[in-house]
Amino acid sequence: MADSNDSIPLDNENIYFGGKEHHVRTRCGSLSVIVYGDRHKPALITYPDLALNHVSCFQGLFFCPEAGSLLLHNFCIYHISPPGHELGAAPICPSASARCVDDLADQILEVLNFFGLGAVMCMGVTAGAYILTLFAMKYKKRVIGLILISPLFRAPSWTEWFYNKVMSNLLYFYGMCGLLKELLLQRYFSKEVCGNTEIPESDIVQACRRFLDERHGSNVMQFLQAINGRPDLTSGLKRLRCRTLIFVGDSSPFHSEALHMTSKLDRRFSALVEVSSRVVNYLLSKLCLIGVGCLLVQVQACGSMVTEEQPHAMLIPMEYFFMGYGLYRPCHLSDSPRSPLSPSCISPELLSPESSGLNLKPIKIRVSHYT
């Protein structure tokens, strides 16, 4: 484990709800990492979407009591922020050399080495999911599993490329202006929570808007330019050998991207199924036991950021996913976090995928055992 003297000293503003911030110096500059939990536990690495950080992208998931218990009871969490996206970040100098997606993936390796971590579980949202997928391809032995939320994996379509160019121009000339924030909110959330002339926007959208106010345009533009210049990862997906759990909101602009990604993963390591509410838990447990590599969970009435909009929909699939690795440790002590599937902890309606917003979509199933 790296010597704590290698990190930049902390002040009171560097402590977040029990987590501690470390600034890890990498070949491409300093990177903020917020660490929560017991560092002797298995590591879970997170990476957020464009213009977000661990608070604005993962707060809903970790503040959901059952999800927080599940994750913090079984893992030490390492929240990595893209360069210049951490809380209180200073503006990146416009003359600073631009980073590409390979640079961002390589930074993750340097973070793992700094903390003395071996193979880790990874969780990323949209652009962050792309960075972690690329990292898993480049450093296969350092990733044991991927949890991807509304992921990207192909090069930008002409539509996305143009959309990103418009945002880049807005950032360059106007910074984090009102129009840019509206475009980002449409990227993250469904219309149901964004509101309209008759229905006010939800609290999570209002909170995200306040977080976006704190971002520096130059910092967001650097990450956006890296993502807009990303290469296609399709050919590398067949070589992924870690299990993958994919969540996507059915209102996400990247919904078709997630479906297509799953179809390109090695079928020997994947299975997508459609189930009724009566058999969802039974089937998920069987997929866990036989070691299925990929499961896609479509969340109804939800945008890209399932972690904020419907975090409860992630509970049951995540628990069974972790059980497949032997990483899930149920707690039997009354004063400790409880399993989200414990009868005394979960409400009956959460056991129905329809009530939780779950819709598991089918493709041809091909399953094999592997180690």
From TrEMBL:
Assigned keywords, A-Z: Membrane, Transmembrane, Transmembrane helix
Residues that span the membrane, as ranges: 114-137
Keyword Transmembrane carried by entry: yes
SUPFAM superfamilies assigned: alpha/beta-Hydrolases
Superkingdom in the source lineage: Eukaryota
Gene3D superfamilies with a match to the protein in the record: alpha/beta hydrolase (3.40.50.1820)
Family matches, as InterPro entries: AB_hydrolase_fold, NDRG
Keyword Glycosyltransferase: no
Family membership: Belongs to the NDRG family.
PANTHER family, per the entry: N-MYC DOWNSTREAM REGULATED
Name this protein carries in UniProt: Pollen-specific protein SF21
Organism per entry: Gossypium schwendimanii (Cotton)
